[in-house]
Write a structure and sequence with these properties.
- The protein is mainly α and 67 residues long.
- The protein has 1 helix and no strands.
- The N and C termini lie far apart (98 Å).
């Protein structure tokens, strides 16, 4: 009976170690995803700013207003 308890304790310790490793990996992945998300949000803001500038320039041209 002692052997089975020791075996189960060993299995439990291994499972806890694997769970801790998985949590560490998930935290690292979460950090990476947050950085990627911030970068993409910045890129999106830049592109929207460029599009707005182009639309303002087009509006200034007043193309086709005279008929």
């Amino acid at each position: 009976m002692t052997d089975s308890i020791a075996d189960r304790l060993t299995e439990l310790e291994a499972a806890v170690r694997r769970a801790a490793e998985a949590v560490a990996r998930l935290r690292d992945e979460n950090d990476r995803l947050r950085r990627d998300n911030r970068r993409l949000e910045d890129e999106r803001r830049q592109v929207l700013g460029q599009i707005d500038a182009v639309l303002r320039d087009i509006a200034k041209l007043d193309l086709g207003a005279e008929t």
